[in-house]
Amino acid sequence: MNIKETLFALSSADGVGNIREASDLAYDLLKEYCKTEKSDTLTVIGYLKGESDYTLMLDAHIDQIAMIVTDIDDNGFLTVAKSGGIDIRALPSRRVTVHGKEKVAAVFCATPPHLSSGEKEYTDIADIKLDTALGAKAKEIISIGDYVTFSADPCELLGTRVSGRSFDDRAAVACLIEVAKRLKDKKLPLNVAFVLSDGEELGMRGIRPVAFKVDPNEAIAIDVSFGDGIGISEDECGKLGEGGMIGISPALDRKISQKLIKTAKDNNIPYQTEVMGERTGTNADMIAVSRQGVRTCTLSIPLRNMHTEVETLDIKDLDSVCELLCAYILSGGAMND
Amino acid sequence: MTELLKELCLLDGTSGDETAVRDFIISKIDGHCNYRTDNLGNIIAFKKGKKAAKRKIMVDAHMDEVGLIITNITKDGFLKFSTVGGIDTAALMFRKVKINGRINGVISGKPIHLIGDGERKKLPKTDSLYIDIGVATKDEAEKYVALGDRAVMCGDYTENGDNIISKAIDDRIGCAVLIKLLTTDCEYDFYGSFSVQEEIGLRGAKTAAFGIDPQSAVILEGTTAADIAGVAEENKVCKLGNGVAVSFMDRATVYDRKYYDAALNSGINCQPKAAVAGGNNSGVVHLSRQGVRTIALSVPCRYIHSASSVANKRDCENMLKLAEHMINGIASGEIP
């Protein structure tokens, strides 16, 4: 599979809580290229052995935003809570998948025009019921605590742009699998741990025990960041198609940022910088303060419509990120910086 | 019927751009009845029955669906659009669309992370939304899209038990029923019109009714059902599974009372459409020429004008039965 095919396959598989599709698929793909282990969470870790004791951890989270069923009424309408950040204004009339005993297509209720007077306020997702169209039978298939995910399939836009659900952060998962593929037979100056972590969307929880376990010398969190688009000012976003965004922040290791920039320049790999005034809002924030501290940086993929089912990115950026990570690893990371 | 309905729903046909739907319908009715296409694009069909009808009857369903029309292209290659027919902004946000039936696009917006607390609770204005087709410049976009091109919201067709989830049930269900009527042997002569441009103000049916010049009309529709959680009983209008919704009055028409009573007393599962809301082609048909006695039969439909409306299969079957009943009753004189 090329990287686009990997991304589409990972996007179509769901991964949150007890839904293991994406995690199991990523495991199957990654284990072709390196020693790989599953866990009792969604986390998957692959290891490529190098010629030193120095370990670089690359992290991409495998979990996705979702919703979770909190109530089922006798007519087949569900109440749900958010599991991650969701724009509830866009839910009415949206089709989603309920992961019950079987997968069920369901539609969020939309207020009919004759009942909508004036401007509606969207304050609580519990006010927008989810219609299973199953009536009383819903209770036989769906239980409280079942997950609900978006359901749009990935699709190709023009050129090298693509759109779909859970690109945050399957795009980065696809990159790590591609990096493992490209490096599997290479002599590496350092060990690489490919971490596909759980629980990022609920406050970067899943990475904490994993960072403790892997105990790396250095880490890069690969996630998505805001891509340019309508209504977004240029200073708060990256541009689609212009390369991975190398993080610079007081919470990150400046020498890794500099080494990533130098590597990109030396190898003519497109890149952009992303300067953040405080913490990064990614797993990097947690990794950096793991155990006695880990030198950490971020590398982000510009993405439009984040946390929707039409997350949009440029495949060229995934190629740039993979090339940069490979060159960076082969040059020894920040081991000597 | 559901196989036919599925094929119809998955066709794209925004108002004024009904060609795909028209071609499909013609392929189905060809050889079963006489038909012509009028100047606006309506299909006008005549079905010969075993007997002549005592009154000239027109049965109407509209082919068009709500959608989008491209009105401009920004320098960054985003497409600006207007809605064709009424679509709620919530239904458009972050929605996959198809342009000209072949180009994928997504309606793009600001991610929730970059929206302030005040803004988060209110819908943006529709004119702040743009379609992203994957290009970065206006020149590039113009190679693929021209102003005036159409887009529809993408929606799959799914059956959940007795219910259907799909785009465009309004009014491909009417088209499906009318195709069935025109392709099955019948007792009495009647006319059918598959009309254009209903969603932008009942335009096609006006010329179709003039062309047919009927004395009685049966309008087949999908109508708003509000039988959803949190809506008071008296505001539900009609309920899925409770049969065909029969209208007594809406914003455009006061319906023929005798036809209304006859439908409710038919013994076929049906319910009153319990609200004076909305409107349909009856609005122009009943006022055509010297006036036409008109009835509207509708399949109750949740989340109408979205990519995922929900309707009940039995209601669809019952609409076919009730339409036959009304045609036969009016044509024979049994319904006075």
Describe the structure.
The complex is a heterodimer of chains A (337) and B (336). Chain A has two domains: 3-64 and 165-330, 3-Layer(aba) Sandwich (Aminopeptidase), CATH 3.40.630.10; 66-150, Beta Barrel (Elongation Factor Tu (Ef-tu), domain 3), CATH 2.40.30.40. Chain A has helices at residues 3-12, 21-30, 138-141, 167-183, 207-214, 254-266, 284-287, 315-330, and strands spanning 35-37, 44-48, 55-61, 66-72, 77-83, 95-99, 103-108, 130-131, 147-150, 155-156, 161-164, 191-197, 218-226, 244-248, 271-275, 295-303, 311-314. In chain A, helix 4 packs across helix 8 and helix 6 (254-266) crosses helix 8 (315-330). Chain A is globular and about 65 Å long. An eight-stranded mixed β-sheet of chain A has the order 1-2-12-3-13-16-14-15, with helices on both faces. Chain A has eight helices and 17 strands. By secondary structure, chain A is an alpha+beta fold. Chain B contains ten helices and 17 strands. In chain B, the strands form two sheets. In chain B, strands 1, 2, 3, 10, 11, 12, 13, 14, 15, 16 and 17 form an eleven-stranded mixed β-sheet that branches. In chain B, strands 5-4-9-6-7-8 form a six-stranded antiparallel β-sheet. The chains are: A alpha+beta (337), B alpha+beta (336). At the A-B interface, strand 7, strand 10 and strand 11 of A face strand 7 of B.
Oligomer: heterodimer
Which second-level CATH architecture of the largest domain in chain A applies?
3-Layer(aba) Sandwich
Give the rounded overall mean pLDDT of chain B. 96
CATH class of the largest domain in chain B: Alpha Beta
- Largest interface pair: A-B, 62 and 69 residues
The helix content of chain A is: 10-25%
Task: Pick out the low-confidence regions of chain A.
Answer: none
Distance between the termini of chain A: 35 Å
Which structural class do the helices and strands of chain A define? alpha+beta
Q: What's the CATH superfamily of the largest domain in chain B, by name?
A: Zn peptidases
Could you name the CATH topology of the largest domain in chain A? Aminopeptidase
Indicate the CATH architecture of the largest domain in chain B. 3-Layer(aba) Sandwich
Sheet with most strands of chain B:
11 strands, mixed
Share of β-strand residues of chain B: 25-35%
Radius of gyration of chain B: 21 Å
Number of strands of chain A: 17
